[in-house]
Write a structure and sequence with these properties.
Largest sheet: 7 strands, mixed
Strand content: 5-15%
Bound molecules: pyridoxal-5'-phosphate
Order of helices and strands: HHEHEHEHEHEEEEEHHEHHEH
Oligomer: single chain
Length: 380
């Protein structure tokens, strides 16, 4: 092929294309905030919470300062602390486990399913049985909807019920996805999502939200969000945070919400085309038939990952590795005493996985260019 003289440069995520499309709506929304001046907990925050409650199909939405706070606050509401065990997967972003450790509790890792990369319910059952023999008290499970695909909630709920544990859905990557007709964010007892700019539903800064049906949980979360307030900010009934979501960021999301459903479709179209055209060089992602993914990442597996990444880089195609090192092998978790070999599926996937450009505005020409580059990476 003689096209290599024309060097392309494809963005990994193109936030600019989206902004060009709705710039006017965003500016109008932001201008309204500048006019009324209620920068903290202004009317846009309430409006967004109402809209997202409807979108997800739950009773309550509590926005907050980040996806990490959205995971931390429910654990605080459950009064998780030293001596408690919370189960999660080691193949995720550090936040998922970090919040458990921040409260003095112990993350207990459970290996993932080799096809979906989500927590393996069979191994979860075993891990809980094991912990029950020791000194830690099993309290909850944080399944992660990795790369945008919900975890196995029916199986997880059943296990949770059997052992009396709560389920906190980490929907940071799956906002907008569906599981058996229900939206991500409604799949556990309580759910957390992130509005970090690169997530499927991102604002222009940090942000997050918590979803639940239980009014008492919602009330506790609202208290924790403002320093554990009781009847007012100077009546502190528990230890809390400054965990509020900015009014200006709520304004940005209200504008983005107008096109979000369409963007979900566009993402799915890109992923569908990728999966159809990718040959034998890589293993395409697998989404179970009873659920959808919002494709926070389009991640593939390859034996010779580093060679392929280099050859894509030479053609102006960026890639990323989520995640190069499972959490049980991170220096921060050395004290937990895990070893290489403890979670063979997570370790194997970490060695073989990489993600390619994915966003709603990736055109077919660029998709084909990327697919061709991957399919020819081994041949050359
Ligand atoms: C991004 C992410 C978070 C944390 O969200 P922030 O808004 O960056 O704090 C938590 N869990 C997962 C799986 C994520 O991908």
């Amino acid at each position: 092929m003689e096209q290599t003289t024309k060097q392309k440069s494809i963005p990994f995520i193109d936030l600019r294309a989206q902004q060009d499309r709705i710039r006017q709506a965003i500016e109008e929304r932001i201008n309204r905030v500048l006019d009324h001046g209620k920068y903290i907990m202004g009317p846009e925050v309430k409006e967004l919470e109402e809209r997202l409650t409807e979108f997800v199909g739950v009773n309550h939405c509590v926005t907050c300062a980040s996806g990490t706070d959205a995971l931390l606050m429910p654990l605080m509401a459950y009064e998780i602390g030293p001596g408690d065990a919370v189960f999660t997967a080691p193949f995720t972003f550090i936040s998922t486990a970090e919040v458990i450790s921040l409260l003095g509790a112990t993350p207990v890792f459970v290996d993932i399913d080799p096809q979906t990369y989500n927590i393996d319910p069979g191994k979860l059952n075993n891990a809980i049985q094991e912990v029950k023999k020791g000194r830690l008290q099993p309290k909850g499970i944080i399944p992660v909807d990795l790369f945008g695909q919900p975890a196995d909630y029916d199986e997880i709920e059943q296990i949770a019920k059997e052992f009396g544990l709560f389920v906190l859905e980490d929907a940071a990557q799956s906002f907008g996805a569906e599981y058996k007709g229900k939206r991500a964010g409604s799949l556990g007892d309580v759910a957390a999502t992130s509005f970090f700019p690169a997530k499927p539903f991102g604002c222009y800064g940090d942000g997050g939200a918590i979803f639940c049906d239980d009014a008492e949980m919602a009330q506790r979360l609202r208290s924790i969000r403002v320093h554990g307030q009781g009847t007012n900010k100077y009546d502190n009934v528990r230890i809390g945070l400054n965990g509020r979501f900015d009014t200006i960021q709520a304004a940005v999301l209200l504008a983005k919400l107008e096109i979000f459903e369409e963007e979900i479709q566009l993402r799915d179209k890109v992923a569908g085309r990728y999966s159809e055209k990718l040959g034998e060089v890589v293993v395409a992602p697998f989404v179970k038939p009873d659920r959808t993914s919002v494709w926070a990442q389009y991640s593939v597996l390859a034996r010779n990952r580093d060679e392929i990444i280099q050859s894509l880089k030479a053609k102006g195609i960026p890639t990323a590795i989520y995640y190069p090192k499972p959490l049980h092998l991170q220096p921060a978790y050395k004290s937990l005493g895990y070893q290489n070999g403890d979670f063979p599926v997570s370790e194997e996937i970490a060695n073989r996985i990489f993600s390619i450009p994915m966003h709603p505005y990736l055109n077919e020409e660029d998709q084909d260019y990327i697919v061709d580059a991957i399919n020819s990476a081994l041949v050359s």
